[in-house]
Write a structure and sequence with these properties.
about 325 residues; 3 strands; mainly alpha; single chain
Length: about 325
């Protein structure tokens, strides 16, 4: 099996995959506790009330999450369009200015790809574009028009970036999430106590598993693990190709991207000692996997040495 296939087959692990073990645990719990029931409570009424409240809060939660996802997708597309336009316009405003903008866009894209849920990391590169305006070359009427368009787009880019920073750093209110979890757990307990025949046993297993699935998929969406990161990867690849830079990926993203044989890639590793990222340019060939494994092991050993040194001190 070649190196490319090994990376392609890397699975995307989401929290809701744990639904399967929970399903098995509910089956086991059901059959190990057949005689544990409380006959004196009006379980059916309690299930109805809790189910209504749980469904109401879950609807609100998913509405918030899906609104956030839609806004995020739209903002990512707008951000990419602005960066592309800024790069293309800078070509007409002097070679020095163009190279600086190229470097800024490259640095910004790298940081926002690695620190996707911490978009503020890209502020330095964004603000640096304003500093580079001093190198803008304006000698002709055509360049004046291009410069005006560049400044307009730069002004329009800022609100989009701020929106992305707010969206990616935002999470569901803890009070709402706790309420969902509390009602869900109570509902599972009530379904457990309501067992007695085959139908109620199956109902307990299936509904309890679905509730756990809902909890886990909420966490995945809340932590931006589903869908949107893929969009950000695609947009980043587009920008790297446009500006003529090798595509960059953090080490942990390699299993989620398609690598092309013979192509060079920049792979980022976090140095535990300096807390900074170290980047390596590697060609995708049969030796790629072994080199990645070697670098991963190197940085892991370094991290372990630092932890051991801290513990000894």
């Amino acid at each position: 099996m070649d190196a490319q296939n090994q990376f392609k087959k890397g699975p995307n692990i989401y929290l809701y995959y744990w639904t399967i073990p929970f399903l098995a645990s509910f089956v086991i719990l059901n059959y190990l506790s057949k005689n544990l029931r409380i006959e004196t409570l009006n379980i059916n009424l309690m299930i109805s009330v809790v189910s209504f409240l749980f469904g109401f809060l879950i609807t609100i939660t998913f509405s918030m999450l899906l609104t956030r996802v839609a806004t995020l997708k739209d903002s990512l597309s707008t951000e990419t369009g602005r960066l592309v336009s800024l790069f293309l316009l800078s070509k007409h405003l002097g070679k020095t200015f163009h190279e600086k903008i190229k470097t800024r866009i490259d640095g910004y894209t790298i940081k926002t790809l690695r620190y996707y849920s911490n978009y503020e990391k890209g502020r330095e590169e964004n603000y640096g574009i304003y500093e580079d305006l001093n190198d803008m070359e304006i000698k002709t009427k055509k360049q004046e028009i291009k410069a005006a368009s560049f400044l307009y787009l730069l002004g329009e880019f800022q609100p989009t970036r701020e929106k992305l920073e707010a969206i990616t750093g935002k999470r569901i209110e803890w009070s709402l999430k706790c309420s969902n979890y509390l009602l869900g757990i109570i509902l599972i307990i009530l379904l457990f106590l309501n067992r007695g025949d085959t139908f109620t046993n199956v109902l307990f297993i299936v509904l309890s598993t679905i509730i756990v699935f809902i909890f886990l998929i909420i966490e995945d969406y809340d932590n931006l693990r589903i869908g949107d990161y893929v969009n950000n990867i695609s947009n980043s690849e587009q920008i790297f190709d446009l500006i003529g830079k090798d595509r960059y990926y953090p080490r942990y993203l390699l299993s989620r991207v398609n690598l092309e044989p013979g192509r060079n890639y920049r792979i980022g590793f976090i140095d535990a000692e300096t807390k900074e990222e170290r980047m390596f340019s590697l060609q995708y060939n049969p030796k790629f996997i072994s080199r990645i494994s070697s670098l991963t092991e190197k940085f892991r050993r370094k991290e372990q040495q630092i932890e051991q040194s801290v513990n000894n001190s």
